[in-house]
Amino acid sequence: xxxxxxxxxxxxxxxxxxxxxxxxxxxxxxxxxxxxxxxxxxxxxxxxxxxxxxxxxxxxxxxxxxxxxxxxxxxxxxxxxxxxxxxxxxxxxxxxxxxxxxxxxxxxxxxxxxxxxxxxxxxxxxxxxxxxxxxxxxxxxxxxxxxxxxxxxxxxxxxxxxxxxxxxxxxxxxxxxxxxxxxxxxxxxxxxxxxxxxxxxxxxxxxxxxxxxxxxxxxxxxxxxxxxxxxxxxxxxxxxxxxxxxxxxxxxxxxxxxxxxxxxxxxxxxxxxxxxxxxxxxxxxxxxxx
Length: 290
Fold this sequence. Notes:
By secondary structure, this protein is an all-alpha fold. The chain is built from eleven helices and no strands. The chain has helices spanning 2-17, 28-45, 47-50, 82-118, 120-134, 138-149, 153-179, 183-190, 195-231, 243-250, 259-289.
């Protein structure tokens, strides 16, 4: 009995303590990706101290000014400083990327855990629901839901929450189906551990890493989704600064005032590149450790 208990406990505790982040030596992709992400976050958070301008204040005496010492990224058709609006827009876009990932990650992981562990009617129901939802393009479902709820940031969150959990549920469920057949799980059952302890203490630490890696890439998708919806007028509403909305506002001036759309677009590229490199680096490390 003592040997069974030792087998059941040591494996998950070791996997938890030597889990995803503590086991991973820093490689080039992780370092560069983390550096880019941190730079974007710091610039967005420090926006009030980096620029003297109000992101939403009109200045009709400085309309469509080219990038200069006074206005580093130039001004738009309302005389608003593009550098200031780009920094403040980073707050909203990073919020979209992070918040729109955390809720589906938690909800989808819990659903995948219970579906994979218990099986039965709950597993069948959830997986059929997932199959139906993934049969439609992601953006089409998001637009359909927002068209019902109406445009706005909160409704955009609701739409992403309702659609985004499916990927995490599939990932975690697949991992659970493999892990629950391992010897340490069978040993935990044989000595009488409850389902809650087995699921959250023994299985979860050993199946959550792929979902976290996927979340790094999903942040990029959510940022692009938010920017796309704002570009279409379904996301963040004017005059709030948001990268997609800024690109949409500047498309009419792309020839004479290229900086209005181009520079916020570069901000999206840099942010997406940072999260993509971070996700790729974590994926490589997990693959090398397996």
